[in-house]
Amino acid sequence: MAPRATLPPHPGPLVFQPLKRRHCAECRRGPLPLLVLEDSAPRCLDCADLGHLVFLPRGDTALTRRAREESALSAVVVRFNRRQSRYERQGVLVEEEALARAEQRCLADAEARRRRRMRDARRREAQNELFAHAFATEIRRLFPGCPPDRARAIAAHASERGSGRVGRSAAGRALTEGAVTSAVVASVRHLDTPYDRLLMSGVPRHEARRRISAAVETVLRGWTEAGLGSAG
Predict the structure, then answer these.
(1) Which residues form the DUF2293 domain (predicted)?
(2) How many other C-beta atoms can be found within 10 angstroms of the C-beta atom of residue 161?
């Protein structure tokens, strides 16, 4: 074993996962999956009065912390890493009843987190709906001839959370005229002109935009005049 100075700080007993076959110096059982060193001699968990504890592997910090809080007796389990030349924590030994109580606490927390996520999701959805409605209203104000269903579709598309589209930009959130108009232009470009077909046929983007610019302006001009239907 390495010198004590190389061991990680630990409250309470320290238990080792041996790299070599070791037998208990007291009862002679072995090879031991876990052992305790007493006076530099290996002892099995039963002989070290730790045999009633159960092993909890590392990985769940909250569960480990709570299991140790619930357990009157616990031990840190370590194993020597030859490559790093140091001992590393592998988990803890705790009382079985304490582990069960800790698991119940974590399950209760998990349910609380799940409910909080659901509440947050509902709140974000409501906020998104309100913003999309405001965006659609602004579209109809700037383009009164835009059909209501089309305005709602444009607003929903432009303001989709996480999309990176114009509706999620600072200008879009502020409902600036430029941002709203950009969203409308993009919709018209893709749905009311042969723009997408031009791109698929290999026409460069800027050239494709030049070719359909007149068609876009025609639709926008029609929508700008209140009372007129969609030109697309």
Answers:
(1) 138-223
(2) 12
